[in-house]
Amino acid sequence: MIQPRTMLKVVDNTGAKEVQCFHVLGGTRRRYAQLGDVIVASVKKAEPRKAVKKHEVVRAVVVRQKKASRRQNGIYIRFDDNAVVILDGKTKEPKGGRITGPVAKEVKEKGFDKIATIAEELI
Which residue in 6, 44, 36, 53 sits closest to 109, CA to CA? Predict the structure, then answer.
């Protein structure tokens, strides 16, 4: 359950290290984002001389969440942290070229095929 003011880890190589969600896309009264949902976030921590700078507003897709998520087959999946991958503009393409750590299958099911293919591990 990702909501506004949630701090999330960035798991790609764009230079951002931590972002803070301030809007969940997908409706006027939408409160929470789950695996595979797109959020609008502000970069809070970033590496110097990289593609994404501090205080930049970006769109990102949730690839891991701490809250247990139920799948169609009855299995619950949960991760150790909340993590996102930064998107390139308003497209479904990732801005970076590498993704570290596992990524949930729900991301591929929601149409983010490029993120699923460059991920280290798809769970």
Answer: 36
Per-residue model confidence as pLDDT tens digits over 45-56: 999 999 999 999
29 vs 25: CA distance, rounded Å: 10
CB 120: neighbour CB atoms within 10 A? 11
Q: What pLDDT, on a 0 to 100 scale, did the predictor assign at position 76? A: 96
**Is residue 104 within 8 Å of residue 84, measured between CB atoms?**
no
Mean pLDDT of the region 42-65: 96
CATH number at residue 95: 2.40.150.20
Q: How many domains does the chain have?
A: 1
The answer to whether the beta carbons of residues 79 and 45 sit under 8 Å apart is no
